[in-house]
């Protein structure tokens, strides 16, 4: 087939998935990243596909929409998701990984692939002939952001917040208990229970705590899906008890349910570090130390990493892209990952896979692959085109994005998962045909 080389900018979750997908179809790829010469404010590792915050890729059962998305990615042999399973650590029904192992597995695949050439360079523009995928993520460098702003009107921005990570051996185990929610098994989570008084004092402390001042280019536009705890606390006394401090489904060793509960999830395979689940925050570091050490069991906790907040950038996809992540005004350019307007780790991997396949169709003059909204992959892609351009917000996969299904309510999720399986297996057959043709 064709002998065009595809340029991919950004070796994150989406860029790596797109590169490996195209390489598996026989396409030559040049993959660019600023790492390891330069880093964005959240990236620290020289390896590719770095997870910058939580180490959880969320639920792995088809009772949740994200589970259906993973099922589809597994059927289509997603390379990056495959690395996540290799790096998996126990955490109930969620797919949680050791972030170091995960990134080094992806890096090994990229560096060991003769079809992929890696170049460490900052890209600040694109031309109108080279097939190009922009996958530079929510922390796209200022030079490229400015170029995109000028060329496309990249005017939207929002905030994400990172939860603190604490050292396992600094936890007071006499005050905590180990359990998963709604599960009588031993459990993977450490739970710090709070009484009513402790909870109310904690909320009151949070509402008056000092936050890091935002920079001049930043604005108080908090991204709802990753809201800092101190912002949530200000909304309503019980907001945290309905959110990250929800105790429903947890039973203490004395047989009672706590009034509120902070959960800690393993950060690494050895269990030396724990992540404070849902504790994204923009409090100053001394305030994090002062307030989070009032949580029972964490009085002497050692913070391995404090929470932080960052600006995120994404394009106005409904204005700029078609439902195959392709730039309407310039067909040789595709966007993948968070910058395209989807939200989340697994969604970024998913968009990398879709864009890799659609780019293959584009350079080979094949009809585009239509995933349809009967699949999670298609539902995500469709959102980018169908959302309101006047109030566009990045979105993670959810049941509302799928095509409606005619069946009793209690069977809906099961039937959607079943329908997606059938559609994806047809797409898998189509891709297998391409691979056979490439080999001939
Ligand atoms: C602080 C923060 C915390 C987040 N936490 C979570 C979370 O807990 N769970 C979740 O599901 N999602 C989270 N997200 C959202 C999102 O899922 C992740 O950002 C995800 O990594 C996005 O994948 P990506 O491939 O689009 O970009 P990235 O994984 O960020 O990869 C982009 C790559 O492009 C490179 N790059 C940037 N600019 C250039 C340039 N001009 N030239 C060359 N290379 C460039 C970067 O170095 C980076 O390696 C978070 C986002 C942020 C910013």
How do the helices and strands line up, and which of them pair or pack?
Blueprint lengths: L4 E5 L3 H12 L3 E6 L22 E4 L5 H11 L3 H8 L1 E2 L4 E4 L1 H13 L4 E5 L11 E3 L7 H11 L4 E5 L3 E3 L9 E2 L11 E5 L1 H13 L20 H7 L24 E7 L6 E4 L8 H8 L10 E3 L3 E5 L3 H4 L12 E3 L9 H19 L12 H11 L25 H28 L1
Parallel strand pairs: 1-2, 1-7, 2-6, 7-16
Antiparallel strand pairs: 3-5, 4-5, 8-15, 9-13, 9-14, 10-11, 11-12, 12-13
Helix pairs in contact: 1-10, 2-10, 2-12, 3-4, 6-7
Instruction: Decide which structural class fits the backbone.
Output: alpha/beta
Q: Can you tell me the residue ranges where pLDDT is under 50 for at least 5 consecutive residues?
A: none
Indicate the CATH topology of the largest domain. Answer: FAD/NAD(P)-binding domain
- For this structure, the quaternary state is single chain
Strand order of the largest sheet: 10-11-12-13-9-14
Amount of beta strand: 15-25%
Number of helices: 12
Gross geometry: globular
**Helix-residue proportion:** 25-40%
Could you tell me the radius of gyration in angstroms? 22 Å
CATH superfamily of the largest domain: FAD/NAD(P)-binding domain
Reading the helices and strands in chain order gives EHEEHHEEHEEHEEEEHHEEHEEHEHHH
């Amino acid at each position: 087939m064709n002998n065009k080389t595809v340029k991919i900018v950004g070796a994150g979750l989406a860029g790596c998935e797109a590169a490996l997908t195209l390489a598996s179809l026989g396409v030559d790829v040049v993959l660019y990243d600023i790492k390891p010469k330069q880093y964005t404010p959240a990236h620290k590792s020289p390896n590719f596909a770095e997870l910058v915050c939580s180490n959880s890729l969320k639920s792995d059962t088809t009772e949740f929409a994200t589970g259906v998305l993973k099922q589809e990615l597994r059927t289509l042999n997603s390379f990056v998701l495959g690395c996540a399973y290799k790096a998996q650590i126990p955490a109930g029904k969620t797919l949680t990984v050791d972030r170091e192992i995960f990134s080094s597995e992806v890096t090994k695949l990229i560096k060991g692939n003769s079809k992929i050439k890696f170049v460490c360079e900052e890209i600040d523009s694109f031309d109108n002939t080279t097939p190009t995928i922009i996958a530079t993520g929510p922390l796209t460098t200022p030079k490229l952001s400015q170029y995109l702003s000028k060329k496309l009107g990249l005017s939207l921005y929002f905030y994400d917040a990172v939860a603190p990570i604490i050292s396992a051996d600094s936890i007071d185990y006499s005050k905590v208990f180990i359990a998963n929610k709604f599960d009588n098994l031993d459990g993977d989570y450490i739970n710090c229970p709070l009484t009513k008084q402790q909870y109310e004092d904690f909320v009151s402390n949070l509402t008056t705590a000092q936050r890091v001042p935002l920079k001049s280019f930043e604005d108080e536009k908090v991204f709802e899906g990753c809201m800092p705890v101190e912002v949530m606390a200000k909304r309503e006394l019980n907001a945290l008890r309905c959110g990250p401090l929800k105790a429903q489904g947890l039973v203490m060793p004395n047989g009672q349910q706590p009034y509120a509960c902070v959960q800690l999830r393993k950060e690494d395979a050895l269990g030396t570090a724990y992540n404070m689940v849902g504790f994204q925050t923009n409090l100053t570091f001394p305030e994090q130390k002062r307030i989070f050490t009032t949580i029972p069991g964490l009085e002497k906790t050692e913070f391995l990493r404090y929470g932080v907040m960052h600006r995120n950038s994404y394009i106005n996809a409904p204005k700029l892209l078609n439902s195959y992540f392709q730039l309407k005004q310039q067909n040789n350019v595709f966007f993948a990952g968070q910058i395209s307007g989807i939200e989340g780790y697994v969604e970024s991997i998913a968009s990398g896979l879709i864009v890799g396949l659609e780019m293959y169709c584009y350079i080979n003059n094949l009809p585009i692959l239509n995933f349809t909204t009967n699949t999670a992959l298609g539902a995500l892609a469709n959102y980018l085109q169908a959302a309101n351009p006047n109030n566009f917000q990045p979105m993670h996969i959810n049941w509302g994005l799928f095509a409606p299904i005619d069946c009793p309510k209690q069977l809906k999720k099961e039937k959607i998962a079943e329908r997606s399986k059938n559609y994806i297996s047809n797409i898998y057959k189509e891709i297998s045909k391409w691979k056979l043709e490439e080999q001939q």
